[in-house]
Design brief:
Elements: E1 6-11, E2 15-17, E3 22-32, E4 70-76, E5 79-87, E6 89-94, E7 99-103, E8 107-111, E9 116-121, E10 131-141, E11 152-156, E12 163-167, E13 173-180, E14 182-183, E15 186-187, E16 205-211, E17 216-219, E18 227-234, E19 237-240, E20 243-246, E21 249-254, E22 259-263, E23 268-275, E24 283-285, E25 288-290, H1 293-306, E26 327-329, E27 335-337
Antiparallel strand pairs: 1-21, 2-3, 3-10, 4-9, 5-8, 5-10, 6-7, 6-9, 7-26, 8-11, 12-13, 13-16, 14-15, 16-23, 17-22, 18-21, 18-23, 19-20, 19-22, 24-25, 26-27
């Protein structure tokens, strides 16, 4: 323990460690070039380990994509993904026939539940200019009672995400984008219905925090039992509860005590993840997260038998029309667009 308020400080790698009820978080930050006719990079792919390209080369990665960067069809069971796109776009397709394109501040909250396949591709829409992409994907666990919930996804459009703004005593601004949880009277939109976050008593918070250079802010408190972590992913340095912290570090905090954050000489960007722990056994194997090893074995068996509904798309790296815009088409046929 660093002091009475900070329990741990850790450098951030590609996959960020999280606390229960979260499983992990990944920060994708890729400076993609202009796109080609197939929505892939208009650049040579020579020297890349296509299908497993996780090493940043020329400032970007193909991940599991071979033509288009991203993650072609793969299965999940037993947890949720919360995908927060700061810049760029994601094309969603799944085994229930749902699809969508979201980005530029949009959030997709997807409950894998009993099981589905989906693809998450990063279409390089612009052929005349670069296609930068920055996003977080947060894996949020489901309690045992919800592991077999009906698969579902919900779009939280950028226009519907509230912003809490305040100024410190020197007039410096602090802005908090509330994806889950609340600050005072400012409350985030509802998450997916079977989520651990759907119960306000679980105090699940997912906040994007921007602090102006030289600003100071006191984090609002939560219940003693809540696990709380801050991820300082862009900026120079901050002082938190009296401890100097460099950029690209995580800080685990006691949630029931007010914590003062003093920012340095550059704007600081932080992600907060907090929530009541589920306090159940977690057994993860690849894309499945259950409570016991036999449940993992059953997940693999069920997937081999059913393919979680099969794959209704022509491509495992399915992308949508260049001019599709931001839209969501759900498994029940309902559609939204922005």
């Amino acid at each position: 323990m660093y002091n009475k308020l900070i329990t741990d400080i850790k450098p951030l790698g590609f996959k960020w460690e999280t606390q229960d009820p979260f499983l992990f978080c990944v920060h994708h930050d890729d400076d993609y070039p202009k796109g080609n006719e197939e929505f892939g990079p208009d650049a040579s792919l020579e020297g890349r380990n296509l299908g497993q390209d996780f090493t940043s080369k020329d400032g970007w990665r193909m991940y599991h994509g071979e033509r288009v960067p991203g993650f072609p069809a793969h299965p999940h069971r037993g947890f949720e993904t919360v995908t927060i796109v700061l810049t760029g776009y994601v094309d969603h397709s799944d085994s229930h026939g749902a699809s969508g394109r979201y980005g530029e501040g949009d959030v997709q909250w997807m409950t894998a539940g009993a099981g589905l396949q989906h693809s998450e591709m990063f279409p390089l829409i612009h052929k005349d200019k670069p296609n930068p992409l920055e996003l977080f994907q947060v894996w949020l666990n489901l309690p045992q009672k919800s592991k077999f919930a009906e698969p579902h996804y919900k779009m939280i459009w950028a226009e519907d995400i509230p912003l809490h703004i305040e100024k410190d005593e020197n007039g410096k601004a602090i802005e908090v984008t509330l994806i889950s949880g609340k600050i005072g009277k400012v409350e985030a939109p509802s998450p997916a219905p079977d989520s651990w976050a759907a119960d306000p008593g679980n105090e699940v918070g997912i906040w994007l925090i921007k602090m102006e250079a030289g600003s100071q802010w006191t984090l609002p408190t939560a219940s003693l039992e809540v696990n709380r972590s801050l991820y300082f992913y862009k900026g120079s340095e901050i002082n938190i509860a009296g401890i100097d912290v460099k950029v690209y570090n995580s800080i685990d905090l006691l949630a029931d005590q007010p914590v003062v954050i003093k920012n340095g000489n550059a704007d600081a960007y932080l992600l907060l993840l907090q929530g009541m722990p589920i306090n159940e056994p977690v057994v993860q194997h690849g894309p499945f997260v259950m409570n016991t090893a036999p449940e993992i074995q059953k997940a693999f068996s069920d997937y081999r038998k059913t393919q979680f509904g099969g794959w209704p798309w022509n491509r495992y790296d399915n992308v949508h029309a260049r001019d599709a815009g931001r839209f969501a088409k759900y498994a029940d046929g309902q559609e939204e667009s922005r």
